[in-house]
Amino acid sequence: MDARAEQGQAPVAVETPAEAGLRLDVAGPVATITLDRPDKRNAMTFAMWRALARIGETLPGSVRVVVVRGAGKAFSAGIDLGMFSGGGGPSGEHPQDDDRFIAELQAGYTWLRRPEVVTVAAVHGYAIGAGFQLALACDLRVMTDDAWYCMKEPALGLVPDLTGTKPLVEIVGLNRAMDICLTARKVPAAEAERLGLAERVVPAAELDTAVDELVSALLAVNADAAVATKRLLQQAPGNTLEEQCAAERREQLQRLRSMRQG
Known about the structure:
Elements (H helix, E strand, L loop, with lengths): L2 H4 L15 E6 L2 E6 L10 H13 L6 E6 L24 H16 L7 E6 L2 E3 L1 H8 L2 E5 L3 E3 L14 H8 L1 H10 L2 E3 H7 L4 E3 L4 H13 L3 H13 L5 H20 L2
Parallel strand pairs: 2-3, 3-4, 4-6, 5-7, 6-9
Antiparallel strand pairs: 1-2, 7-8
Pfam family, one: ECH_1
Organism: Thermomonospora cellulosilytica
Pathway: Lipid metabolism; fatty acid beta-oxidation
């Protein structure tokens, strides 16, 4: 019997991305993942997070750029609180199983950081809670000038647990991250850009164009050099100067060998 069933939880259902409220479109080196529950403002569910993880597991190796966006009037309203009615989800009473349950959901976000792809969040309307964390899981963020973020979880008695706390602190610093999380306030696009939470802020009517231009610029760079450079940049915060210099040498020598071999 499924461990969740033994705990009174429903067994995990295997759903396709479409059944989970996602749409995946792959066009050559670009994959677009659309949160597709516009009637629910793209509120996110356990099934949606698991489907995101499966997309990461099965993404074609030819994909270099992944764009994440929301259908309808907003990027995402965050967690669908309706999931918790009737005792669904982890309860905290079965630590090992509940820990594994949450880890499976986090896997829907962690793959977006893989060096093999560059990920772009196209944010309009608002990105709340889990939606904000999804944007933070991406490498780059393009926002409309009327969009905003909100880390809502503390106001709901929860904590941000979908990988968002680390990138938030890394981007804005500890004190600003505490301000954003512990007040659960809105962070408008202009402030987000100033804090480094958005690389581009554009009028709503120009979002698609801005994203397309960014994707084109990313694809114009040598693919193998882009992978190596993203890997280097990700390692940098945890490395000493000497360690990072050594990492640069290793990556560069690999690039030079590859170039000589044609």
